Amino acid sequence: MKCLIKSLIILFIPALLFANTRTIAKVHSGDLIEFEGGFTIHLLGINAPDKSTKMGYKVYDFTKRQLEGKVVKLFTYTTNNNASGVVYDSLGYAYGQIVYGKGVVSRNWNINFNELLLKYGYAKVNKDMLPKDVEHFIDIEKRARENKLGIWQNTGE
Predict the structure, then answer these.
(1) CA angle 62, 65, 24 (to 5 degrees)
(2) How far apart, in whole angstroms, are the C-alpha atoms of residue 97 and residue 38?
(3) Hey, is 93 helix, strand or coil?
(4) Is it true that domain 19-152 has CATH number 1.10.3720.10?
(5) What is the C-alpha to C-alpha distance for residues 111 and 91, in angstroms, rounded to an integer?
(6) Closest CA to 41 of 55, 52, 26
(7) How large is the average pLDDT for residues 26-54?
(8) What is the pLDDT of residue 13?
(9) Residue 105 pLDDT class (50, 70, 90 cuts)
(10) Tell me, what's the pLDDT at 8?
């Protein structure tokens, strides 16, 4: 039992020490988010429609209302568990996930924004950037498609 407790402490203390809590400064599109200080990410595992389209603007507006000005936890996708292994898209934006919650005093960090966009049908899975730990995104997209939500409303797919 003592060994299990030691293992849990060893696993969780680094995660707590390196939690990346940041404030979102600007939403550029449904899947491109800028934090205070200028660091910008592309949401990992998904692609939202371009905001020049009707649905794309709706997704952008939703993302802006949900996130802009909020304090969130950022998890960048890395290949080696440290900053030197951060993976970037073709435009130079890091891939990441955003987790946030409700409540000011005791935050309930239980909403994965990447998953939320898929759940509402506001994004498609980016199969070119889908690490194993987010392969469940495929099932979330499938349910949205079957229920004809968001981008799947008027498609024959």
Answers:
(1) 115
(2) 17
(3) coil
(4) no
(5) 27
(6) 26
(7) 97
(8) 38
(9) low
(10) 40
pLDDT tens track for 113-136:
999 999 999 999 999 999 999 999
> Which pair of tokens denotes residue 36?
């205070």
DSSP conformational letter for 4: H
- Is residue 44 a contact partner of residue 115, using CB atoms and an 8 Å limit? no
The encoded tokens of residue 47 equal 């692609």
Alpha-carbon distance 137 to 28, whole Å?
Answer: 22
Nearest CA among 27, 132, 125, 133 for reference residue 72: 27
As a whole number of angstroms, the distance between CA 125 and CA 28 comes to: 19
The better pLDDT of the pair 87, 80 is held by 87
- Tokens at 90, concatenated: 């073709």
Question: Would you tell me how many other CB atoms lie within 10 Å of the CB of residue 2?
Answer: 6
- The sign one gets for the Cα dihedral 7, 8, 9, 14 is positive
Is the pLDDT at 106 greater than 80, yes or no?
Answer: no
Copy the structure tokens of residue 3. Answer: 């060994």
Residue with tokens 């898209």: 89
pLDDT over 50 (residue 17): no
Token digits for 49? 């429609």
